[in-house]
Amino acid sequence: VDPMDVALLVDNSAAMEGDVVHLRRGLERFVDAMGGDHAITIVGLSARPTILTRYTRSGSELKAGIGRIFPQPGEGMTLLDALVEVSRGIEKRETPRAAIVAVVSSGPELGNYDDVSAIKAVRKAGASFNAVTVGHFMATLATPDGHRAQVLENGTRTSGGRHDNLMVATGLPAALERLARDLMSQYKVVYSRPESLVQADSVDVTLSRPGLTARATPERQAGGRK
User: If pLDDT is split at 50, 70 and 90, which confidence band does 225 have?
Assistant: First the structure.
């Protein structure tokens, strides 16, 4: 498995009050499942995107950062802003693979960007966007909550990520561990063509085994997406 940069976007807004124990436990299981070969950063979403732990492969540093996650009273989240800012940061990093993982509740969204801008930023960075969410997300258009719902639905799908929605936060530990194992089990597909052939506009990858799902994220090159 190629080394990977993973940005963990964590909902530490007031909406997570009462669920922080499940949130921390889930993040710890995610870190354990990823092992120590991948650089992970933790970004809080309350009020504005805030780096809680910079990119590191140290499990102890990451768990120390997880232990410092507390819901911020009276604050909403800024997932849309974080997706744009973190994606711009990923573009500048030299890593063959990158993933963004958002762990959020359905509390109020305060981001300034719309869904189109956020998805465009993720795709430009060549990262997969994955989300584990808790609650019901309203898809009302032209509102921050609506833009967030569209990002969770379309941004995960078009970037080769996955979206797992939970009704209660008690499912966070199992869902985040499952997501980590999913990221760890991905394959790199390498292909070539005779130079005499016209370059293809797209490549189709199919599965012969029933019950499996194929997701694709374009390969990244040093300094950005290929």
Answer: very low
